[in-house]
Amino acid sequence: MLRARTFLRADALANGEIVDRVVLDHGDRHRRRIAMTGVGGLGFLLDLAAATVLEDGDLLVLDDGRLVWVEAATETLLEIRAGSDHALKRLIWHIGNRHIPAEIAGDAVYIADDHVLAEMVRGLGGTAEPVERPFRPEGGAYSGGHGHAHAHDEHGHHHD
């Protein structure tokens, strides 16, 4: 089976023909090894060296050099807003305490649709309205539900 062992970030200069695209929600964009089928019917095996969060616009590189475009699927999210910048920061703090993926925009925060969190936000004076859009949560410790460890050697020097 055709394999994609590497990928290019959306801002990379890519040489190769884009032959298909895969439309994946946030959960399905955190992968290492899985059989995929493009929208156009191209079947291939994603076979990366490590589990990676694929972003909207990334390109999967097939063994033969052809490319498959990664597109973030539209999902139902909660758009959380507040009456002031300070109030929004307070809401972000409360959401962060729940250790859930969140996308922080300039004047709103987006999380997966959850009626319990929507009620919490409204109880704290914010708004939480369902919207349909791709989900691009912040990376880091809670990306995809997997921790990100930083290694330190015996001298305390930091290594990623």
Automatic annotation (TrEMBL):
Residues 150-160 have a biased composition (Basic and acidic residues). Residues 3-68 form the UreE urease accessory N-terminal domain. The keyword rRNA processing does not apply. Transmembrane segments: none annotated. InterPro entries: UreE, UreE_C_dom, UreE_N, UreE_N_sf. GO terms for biological process: protein folding; protein-containing complex assembly; urea metabolic process. Residues 128-160 are annotated as: Disordered. This is Urease accessory protein UreE. Coiled coil: none annotated. GO terms for cellular component: cytoplasm. It is found in: Cytoplasm. GO terms for molecular function: nickel cation binding; unfolded protein binding. Gene3D superfamilies: Urease metallochaperone UreE, N-terminal domain, UreE, C-terminal domain. Keywords: Chaperone, Cytoplasm, Nickel. Involved in urease metallocenter assembly. Binds nickel. Probably functions as a nickel donor during metallocenter assembly. CDD domains: UreE. Belongs to the UreE family.
